[in-house]
Amino acid sequence: MYKIRPMTADDYQAVVALMKQTPGVSLREADSRESTSRYLERNPGLSFVAEIGDRLGACVMSGHDGRRGYLQHLVVLPEYRRRGIATALVERCLAELESLGILKCHIDVFKTNAQASAYWESRGWRLRTDINRYSFVRTGAENA
Ligand SMILES: CC(C)(COP(=O)(O)OP(=O)(O)OC[C@H]1O[C@@H](n2cnc3c(N)ncnc32)[C@H](O)[C@@H]1OP(=O)(O)O)[C@@H](O)C(=O)NCCC(=O)NCCS
User: Fold this and answer.
1) Which CATH superfamily, name and number, covers 2-122?
2) Of the N and C termini of the chain, which has fewer Cβ atoms inside 10 Å?
3) What is the pLDDT of residue 44?
4) Pocket of ligand 1 contains residue 113 by CB under 6 Å
């Protein structure tokens, strides 16, 4: 059995450890302890972890800009996959976002991450081919 609870800043180290050991998930300067605390403060109650026994076995982060929701860092440890944990975590995010009036959410997935793409498509998420995402980085912040 697993228990889902809101992620707190104290979970930072365990969540980063989870992401570091997961191919397909990238860690940036935006994932520093300070940035993560800021994100959690700006988006209270919208990021979750799953405790499995005494381990932190899965996580997801989400937030919104007042208009759309954004999910990131959905990771489940390999030994706990295909038990519905990711789906339960995502549902918690979507339900909380819906309660705030946010009904449409996005997630970025590396094109090389076929497993993640298969997951999102199986859950009814639609691959966007009608938009190009452009990003701009201020000089000196290339790993932002
Ligand atoms: C993608 C990931 C989060 C899915 O976690 P999970 O807990 O295994 O997912 P669930 O158990 O909720 O899966 C529910 C359904 O999604 C689909 N699904 C899940 N993983 C899948 C995969 N690897 N390939 C195809 N379909 C998949 C299945 O339909 C599954 O139902 P089923 O087990 O009854 O067949 C997990 O594989 C993971 O952590 N991957 C590495 C990190 C990553 O790439 N994260 C996404 C970044 S955008």
Assistant:
1) Gcn5-related N-acetyltransferase (GNAT) (3.40.630.30)
2) N
3) 98
4) yes
